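The data layer described in this paper is built around a simple, fixed record for each protein. We quote a single record here, exactly as it is kept in our systems:
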Amino acid sequence: MSMGEEISDKLQVSMYNGTMTIRSMKPSSGDFVVYVLVNNPQSITLGENTVVETQGTLESSSIEVFVDRGSVARIRTTGKVNPKSVGDFDVLVEKSGAERQSTREITAL
């Protein structure tokens, strides 16, 4: 795992038991763009006000997407997407694209 010096003092990245966690070190007035290369992910968890978007298509038979308030996940995958709420609120799922490689937009309401 590596990252540029310009971002290393702003983000904390850790790996434990097959799980990568990316956190902001302190409140920031700007957004960060982080690229993570993955193979066959099992789940993605988004904290508050987080946006995750795939570039390309995830090859996965099934992926769980956990969303917190204000979060949006745009996941393009060949498999099934199982959206789940981190809290006590609704999750909206919108689907677009061909059936085999469709994009699901998952929004926490």
About this structure: The chain has a mean pLDDT of 81.
